[in-house]
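Standup notes, structure subgroup. Blocker cleared on the 8-OXO-guanosine-5'-triphosphate input:
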Amino acid sequence: MAKSNAIHVAVGVIENTDGAIFISRRHQHLHQGDKWEFPGGKVETDESVYDALCRELQEECNIQVTSATPFTVIQFDYPDKSVILDVWHVHSFTGTVHQREGQEWRWVDRSELEAYPFPEANTRIVDLLAK
Ligand SMILES: Nc1nc2c([nH]c(=O)n2[C@@H]2O[C@H](COP(=O)(O)OP(=O)(O)OP(=O)(O)O)[C@@H](O)[C@H]2O)c(=O)[nH]1
Ligand SMILES: [Mg+2]
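Run returned:
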């Protein structure tokens, strides 16, 4: 069961026309620092998850989402916090993707994702994508 203090996070699996997926590396000082992640961030009060997804992907990766569908929802308890990752598959967008917050980033093939260290909560996302 989700904890009442769980942090609700909108997460985007952005896929380009070659079928590659965008990942970036979390800054070292942050929660789950140095791990790779899919872009996204906390859903604000009175904001829909979809609006949060669009806002975070604009802020972090410079794109305007034009089409996205729900992919999976993951509730996970880290020792220090609980998260609910509301993961969306982003099929189309405008703008040129790059990471605007100084994080290392790259496009990777689905088959390569398993080689990257992701936060533990992401295991199922990577499994679903690698299939
Ligand atoms: N964005 C993102 N966050 C993830 C992933 N997996 C995962 O456990 N998280 C966790 O979700 C939480 C919130 O994500 P975030 O740090 O991106 O939030 P944010 O962009 O709003 O950050 P801010 O508060 O510094 O503005 C963090 O505790 C982070 O460790 C992932 O794949 N992507
Ligand atoms: Mg973020």
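Discussed briefly. The chain has one domain: 7-130.
Next: hand off to the docking folks.
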